[in-house]
Amino acid sequence: MLMPATLPAKLRQYAQVETERDLIETLSKRPGEFISFFEAAAEDETWCEKNSAFTKATMEWMSSQALNERLSRESIEKIAEIIHTHYPVLHSFIPNDLTVYVNGTDFPMNALLLMAESEFFQDLIHIKCHLQGKSELELHDLSSEHFRIMKEYLYTHSATGLWKFEKHELFTLINEADAYKLPGLRYFCEDQMKKYIDQNNVVEMLIEAHNASWNHLRELCFEFINSRFSVKLTTVEEENEILGHAEMRSLSFEFFDFSQSALMLFSHLKNLVTQIVCKGVLTLDPSFSQVVKSCTHLIGIDINGSLNFSERLFDIPSEIEKLDLSSCQWLTDDAFKRIITITPHLKKLGLESNLELTYVGFSSLQKLRGLRSLDISRNPHLRDDDFSLIVKGSPGLIELKVSGCSGLSNKAFFLVGKNLPQLQRLDVSNTAITDGMLLEIISRCEGLQELNISHCRELSEKGIVHAVELGHALTMLTAKHCHLSHAAVQEITTTRPRLLFES
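The chain above was modelled as a monomer; its predicted structure follows.
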C-alpha cells in the first residue's frame, strides 16, 4: 500500500499492510503511532484525499476513543492540533458524534474538539455523556449566536464573525469564554475590543480588564494610555514569585513628569498600582511624596537613574519589598544606610552600577533579613572582601546578579556555593569565574534553575558541558560568547533537550 510522502521512517513498516481496513486495525493497537501516522497523512493532502475512506475511518475511530475516554488528554490535544493545522483538508471528514442544544437550536458537534480545547467541556461530557451513556449536551445562559462563534473557534481556532459585535456583546462573550475555559476565544474577543477603546472609557476598561485578568485587553489599554499620556504602564508579574506574591495582579506606573493629566490618571488607578517608577529629578518633586503615600497596594519603587539625593525618599513606605537604586551616582554609603533603615522589609534590591558603595554600605545588607534577590552588577570596584560581607549578610538570597564585577576572584565565587546553597538564579556573566568555581556552585546549589555565564573567558568548553551535566535543576542557560564549539552546543542540546539554551 502506498504510504504518505511525509511518513517518518519509523512508520514505513506499515507499507506492508495491504488494505486500508487492515491498516486501521493494525494502527489502532498502537495509538501513539496511529496519531503520528495521521499527522503524516494530513500533511500529504493528495494522499489524504485519495485515501478518503481511511481518513474518514481514522477520524471516526479517534473521536470515538476520545468520547469513550480511551485516549489521554495529551493525545486528544495532539489530534485536535493536527485537525486545526490541516482544517481545509480534514474538515469534511470530521464526524458529528455529539449534539449540543443551545437556546432551542441544536448543533451537531465533534466531542474530541470540545474536549481538547476546554477542560470544562471535557468534564461536562464525562458527566452528561460518558457516565449516562448519552451523546447530547444542553447549555444554558448562552445564545445560539454566541455558540456559533464558539463552534467556529473550536473547529478552526479563528473567530471571523466577531467584527460585527458591539462592545457590550464582546464583554458578554469574554465572560462566556472565561466560564467555558476558552482562553483563546477570549483573546480574540479582547482583541476586537481595541476599536472601542477611547479617551473616555480607557480607564474604566483597564480597571475591568485588570481585575478580571483579561491580560490582552489590559495590554491594549496600556498601549492606548502610554501613547497619549506622559506615563508608562506595564506589568511586573515575573517578579511576583520572588516577592512571594504569585497570585497578585501587578501594575507598574512610571511617571515621566508630574503633569496634571498624569496625576489625574494616577488618581484613578492608584488602588491597582503595585510599583512606582520615578527617574531623573522626579524624586525632588513634592508630588513624589504624595504618590508613594497614596498607593494602597504598593510593593516596589524604582528610582533607577535618579540624579539627586532627595529627603523625599524618606517618605517611602516602610512596607515596600522591592527597591531599585541602580545607577544612582549620589548613592553613598551614608545615604544607603539611611535608606536601608527605613525599608527593613525589602526582598528585592537593585544596586547595579553604584560605584560609590564600599564595604561600609554593603555591611547594612545584614539588616535585610528577608532579602531574596540582589543585583550588584557592573561594579568593577567590588572586591572579594566586600563580596564576603554581602553573601554572609544575605543568606536568604535565591537570586544574585554580579555581571561585570571584574574584581571578583575565585575566592568570592567559592563563597556563593558555600553561603547560598538555596540559590535559584545566578548571573556571573562578564566575570573571571573559572571551571572549578562554576562546578563548585553547581554542585552546592542543587536548586539552581537559571544561569548566565556569557562572556566568561576563563570557562572552558569542557567545564561548561560538565556544569550542564551536574545542574539537574537547570531550566535556562545563557552562554553567549563563550568557548563553545558546534559539537559542544549539540551535546548540550541533545543531553538536555528541554533546557532553554542561548549561546
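The first strand starts at residue 98 and ends at 102.
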